[in-house]
Write a structure and sequence with these properties.
By secondary structure, the chain is mostly beta strands. It is 0% helix and 49% strand.
Length: 171
């Protein structure tokens, strides 16, 4: 699938290439996984360590700091999903934050949040954060989580289908 994006005045604003074109056409692009457990404290934003880099087209993902710097200005689709293991009966929240330049504030597009209410019967919340960010070449994005279980909770590492962080340029 490919086609032009246009605004309501008929002006073209970019070319979109779909899955049939391959992810390498969506440059820069990265996808990384969490291979080691990350212990999170209650009511604290915690950086998630995505240390198993699956794809890095453009070479802009930094495994040491678990952050992605696109290297060029554009609009990017940023996605992170976290699976958290916590005690049965917890009835609070898991927030997954896509943080621009380390900010946990929504001001000026600095934070996109995915949120899950655990509920008393839910022992393993799985939360997705997805959104668009305008980034300069030297901006960076990282994934942080904030949970309110009342104690420490672990990111269920090693399950690559449940814990990932990825991004690619769309315009």
């Amino acid at each position: 699938m490919s086609g032009k994006i246009s605004d309501n005045l008929g002006r073209s604003s970019g070319l979109i290439k779909g899955a049939s074109a391959g992810m390498s056409d969506l440059r820069p692009y990265f996808k990384s996984y969490c291979s080691t457990n990350v212990v999170t404290s209650n009511a604290t934003w915690t950086l998630v360590t995505f240390d198993d880099n699956h794809s890095d087209v453009g070479g802009t993902y930094d495994e040491d700091n678990s952050r992605w710097t696109p290297g060029e200005e554009g609009v990017y689709l940023i996605i992170a999903q976290i699976h958290l293991a916590w005690a049965s009966g917890v009835s609070d929240y898991l927030h997954v934050g896509l943080c621009k330049n380390g900010s946990t504030s929504r001001a000026a597009g600095g934070l996109i949040i995915g949120r899950d209410s655990a509920g008393a019967a839910k022992t393993s919340p799985n939360t997705l954060a997805i959104g668009l960010m305008d980034l300069d070449g030297d901006d960076y994005v990282e994934c942080r989580i904030y949970q309110t279980s009342g104690g420490a909770a672990d990111v269920d590492a090693g399950d690559y289908e449940k814990n990932y962080f990825e991004a690619f340029k769309i315009a």
